[in-house]
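anyone seen this seq b4? input:
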Amino acid sequence: MISNKAKYAFRALLAIAASSDRQAMASADIAQRYAIPHKFLEQILVDLKKAGILDSRRGKNGGYVMLRPADTISFGEVLRLFEGPLAPLPCLSRQSYRRCEDCIDESRCDIRREFGRAYDAYRRVLDSRTLADALDSGHGQNDDFLRRSA
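predicted toks r here
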């Protein structure tokens, strides 16, 4: 299960990516439309800015804009930013590999093999699907808000 922090990050990114003519979106507008605590959303947006995904603009028409095109930002990238490694076992993680303490032989571990199969499929989907794919699908629960924002 993903955290609210990651879920709110996805909502904010999809809203900002859907805005027309790269217009900046105020965090207060996003927070209000999605019922996200504003201070919590601000922390999330700062994390996305530090990661090089968003940029911010000051002033009357200020807010957040996409720094990168939506088709270059995968769900896997964003999820790792907020959740850390996606692997269900430490011995499967590419970023945080650690041998399981109770493992005798990784090459013969049935648990590692089966979870590895599931993890590979999960990772392939998350790393291949982008924000642009989600916006193009036209079936999300956020469609009404995203259309109004565009």
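Confidence is low (pLDDT under 50) at residues 145-150. The first helix runs from residue 4 to 18. kinda curious what u guys think
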